[in-house]
Amino acid sequence: MTQVVQCDACGGRVVYDAGREAARCLFCGSVALHADEGHEAILRPDVMLPFEISRKIADQHYRRWARSSWWYPKPLRQLTIELSELQLPAWRFDASLETHWAGLVRAATRSGARPRAGVEHAELTCQVPASMGLREAELSALQPFDEGIAVRFDEGVPHEIPALSERAASEQARRRLQAEHRHKIMQAHRLQRCNCSTSMRIRGARLLMVPIYIGSFRYRDRPWRFVINGQTGKITGRAPLDRTKLAVVIGLAVAVLLLWLWLGSTGA
Asked: What's the pTM?
């Protein structure tokens, strides 16, 4: 048996096992949670992607991430963090694009450029998070997910309830796909500037659940979180910086600057 828990701070709605006590929001760490007894229609995902790595392996990825920067504080590596499994909703769109473009390339002319124009076709895909808790940049950073091993969605697993309709998600997808195609064209033709007119046809859309491990912690009374791809172990997140190291580096930089200024003034 499951229940829906909603966060009053970020709006995330997560389905848990009814016997589990949800003390904090997985996304923002807030304790302002309540059981959601709403009965409005809920979008049902088409499929879900299974986890490919264990929680133990995911924790090892976290430890490597925590040691990946000299700027991270030492306590970050020693924190005991509970990783939570979660199926996250995302819309997957497949689209055909035709882009008419005109731009400038470098050339040995008086202006240093000459015009070029053309038409490019592309078959592109993108995923748009249907989540209140995870940002688009985080989902992009976790890519790719292997959709070839999709299985039937199980309502009993912990998952976030989809918060974005297909129509709303398709508007975001169109903007992203247009921008992606423009970027590809500019790179392929080494354009300095580029004006584009794009015709797009969405060939397919489906709502799927992607597997993530999510962990949160508090450091200096501030919440932090990181997210791990449950198939590949790829990790994204923001970590606190060591204030002592920052102070030392800034102090050294100021001392060097003052010494340089003093030497310059005495030399004059």
From this structure: 0.80
